[in-house]
Amino acid sequence: MSSRVASFVLLLVFVLPWTAILGAIDVFASAHMVRQVEAANWPSVQGTITRSEVEAVRSKGIMYSFKVGYTYSVDGQPYEGSKHRSSSWRTSDPGDAEELVARHPLGTHVPVYYQPGQPSEAMLQPGLGSSDLFLLMVLLPFHLVALWLVAMVAQGFKPEPPLLSTFVREDGSECVTLDAPSPALWMFLAWGNSALVCAVMGGATGAFIAPLPVGVGAWAVVIACGVLAGLWARARRKAGNFDLCLHAQTRSLSLPPFSGRKHRLDVRWRDVQSLRVEPQVRVQNKKQVTRYPLTLGLSTADGEVRQESIADFARQEQAEAMADWLRTHLKAPG
């Protein structure tokens, strides 16, 4: 299957449904937040709490929510309200709902914010809160996956990159960057994972109903994690941690850490006895996948030949291109 056909299938099967569902959730979340921001400018009157309780609903387990009722008057006209915020949700932990019940005892006088021109539309807590920021935090990993899917589709419609791309470093060595995750990927992973961790910790500690600065602080942590991960990955790549280098002057080959090799390995050209691309069939996600590892045979002091893995390729032509480039310089047999 060509890359363009695969990209088109990915677009139809995954990207469009994923983005459609995510878009619908975004519309709902955006409407809720816009409503909350608008309500911050609504006029207010004093009201009285007439209902404050935790409601439990059985739906694949017990889900809890805060139910509130209050009375208020606008221009002498009495009204009843039941919204704490513009939207509410249920959770499996009753802790947040119980905390809100404790904050709103029966008979308590509270400010009620009502919509100008439609005073029957009212709420108790206008403006953005930590729960809104944590909602965006929960959605962040799903948006990152959507961007990754779009990038994969776009990559399939681009011209095929060269099988081998070499460059010359300042020391005169000719190098190839092996399979190195991009700094952007590290940023995405750090953002997604830190967002999930902060959201889980926020739900467990009651941060969803905490003041807005708590949510702002959580977002600062998430952003910092992504930026630091990207800078770390960029520094490693710039330092050549993933570069295989040929040094013509010293007639040596420098191999980056790979497949159990924790440190860079420098070998003399004359010690290279063989270069082989040997297809291997592996099982990944219950499917057989063929990979093409490139292996170097090195002579040892005791006359034996030790095998060192160089890289692992998904395409045979890429592995062969790397092997041909090395054989040209090392004069090693296949």
From TrEMBL:
<dbReference type="InterPro" id="IPR021994">
    <property type="entry name" value="DUF3592"/>
</dbReference>
<keyword id="KW-0812">Transmembrane</keyword>
<feature type="domain" description="DUF3592">
    <location>
        <begin position="45"/>
        <end position="128"/>
    </location>
</feature>
<keyword id="KW-0472">Membrane</keyword>
<feature type="transmembrane region" description="Helical">
    <location>
        <begin position="133"/>
        <end position="154"/>
    </location>
</feature>
<feature type="transmembrane region" description="Helical">
    <location>
        <begin position="216"/>
        <end position="233"/>
    </location>
</feature>
<feature type="transmembrane region" description="Helical">
    <location>
        <begin position="188"/>
        <end position="210"/>
    </location>
</feature>
<keyword id="KW-1133">Transmembrane helix</keyword>
<dbReference type="Pfam" id="PF12158">
    <property type="entry name" value="DUF3592"/>
</dbReference>
<protein>
    <submittedName>
        <fullName>DUF3592 domain-containing protein</fullName>
    </submittedName>
</protein>
